[in-house]
Design brief:
The protein is α/β, with parallel strands linked by helices. It has one domain: Rossmann fold (3-Layer(aba) Sandwich). It contains twelve helices and ten strands. It has an eight-stranded mixed β-sheet with strand order 3-4-6-5-7-8-9-10, sandwiched between helices. Helix 10 links the parallel strand 9 and strand 10. It starts with 9 loop residues before the first helix and ends in a 6-residue tail after the last helix.
Length: 338
């Protein structure tokens, strides 16, 4: 299995011991470089990219520019469709967009990826809005205008989702709740289905190009995209150091190990096989593990061979809409689940 490349084995342990002095000496500087990469992204307002270009993030135009960059149709939400809501919590504000729809009381929560915001999550949910669903998107922990300074790639968004669902229950009394996320948002959605306080209220999850293990995602990215050298040489104790930075145990962010906890929640895994940011086999192994615990087929997987990271929705837009809507409606209409 390819994923075994990103786990210690006897050979890697032996090589690490043999090269320990060099590995340890490089580790502090390497971690600082990678940490800066992980924590440096636009949150709200003006931002200057490395190439000198300027963007204004966390607004509707940012969403429109995102659609244009992905060669997607510009048919989407209008300003008047969206209400900005700030949810007050004991840890700080949570910034949300709400798009109410008079056609039903079904709700979808859209979860954006790392470095993105609530407006960029709109690309995931407009086709649901067109079909009568009510929509919520939100700035994840340490993104946009939501509280938090150092992202833990979704772990702290679980508590935020708890607060959002409490707000929904009190304010809207939803008939159904679905989650759809891409990249970090996909993994957060799966994690919520496993450990969220209100996970039993979730009717379905669509997880688009999520990682299965944060530790292995760090190692994959270090080796293939950042340092372009073996992860065990360049990324020594990175997970331990990020756990200290974020005050979370990131070793526990392993969705495969907790898949039994969401056995009754249908999950649709989507992942393009050309993804070079999060490898597609991570979704495949999550699906395989999920199916081991299902006594009847509830979950599905779709891995088109021609799409890169977060690109399936653009590359196969009409098929994406059809497949995700069919999956959602199937499990909302099933009396066997909720």
């Amino acid at each position: 299995m390819k994923e075994n490349r990103y786990l210690y084995n006897l050979s890697i342990i032996a090589k690490t011991i043999w090269n320990y002095k060099t590995i340890k000496s490089k580790a502090p500087a390497n971690f600082e470089k990678y940490k800066a990469f992980c924590y440096n992204y636009p949150r709200n307002g003006k931002w200057i990219n490395e190439d000198g270009t300027e963007i204004i993030s966390n607004n509707l135009q940012y969403h429109l520019d995102d659609l244009k960059s992905k060669y997607m149709k510009l048919e989407t939400f209008k300003e008047e469709d969206l209400e900005t809501v700030e949810l007050t919590t004991t840890k700080g504000p949570v910034s949300m967009l709400v798009a109410k729809n008079s056609q039903s009381n079904k709700w979808v929560i859209g979860l954006h990826g790392w470095t993105e915001d609530k407006y960029l999550a709109l690309r995931l949910v407009f086709h649901y809005y067109q079909q009568g669903y009510n929509i919520i998107t939100f700035d994840a922990f340490a993104h946009g205008l939501t509280y938090g300074e150092k992202t833990d790639i979704g772990m702290s968004s679980i508590e935020i989702l708890d607060r959002i669902i409490e707000y929904m229950q009190k304010t809207y009394h939803p008939d159904s709740i679905g989650l759809i996320g891409n990249s970090m948002g996909a993994s957060t959605s799966v994690l919520y289905s496993q450990v969220g306080k209100y996970n039993k209220l979730i009717n379905w999850v669509v997880a688009d190009c999520g990682f299965s293990s944060l530790k292995q995602q760090y190692r994959y990215f270090i080796e293939n995209n950042f340092f372009h050298n073996s992860w065990w040489i360049e990324g020594y104790q990175f997970t331990k150091k990020f756990s200290k930075e974020t005050r979370t145990n990131q070793n526990k962010y392993d969705l495969k190990k907790q898949m039994k906890k969401c056995v009754d929640i249908p999950i649709f895994f989507i992942h393009g096989q050309k993804d070079t940011f999060v490898p597609w086999w991570m979704s495949q192994e999550m699906y395989d593990k999920k199916r081991q615990y299902e006594t009847r087929v509830q979950s599905e997987i779709w891995t088109p061979p021609d799409a890169n990271h977060v690109a399936v929705i653009a590359k196969h837009h009409e098929l994406y809409k059809m497949k995700t809507l069919n999956f959602s409606k199937k499990w909302e209409n099933s009396n066997e689940i909720k």
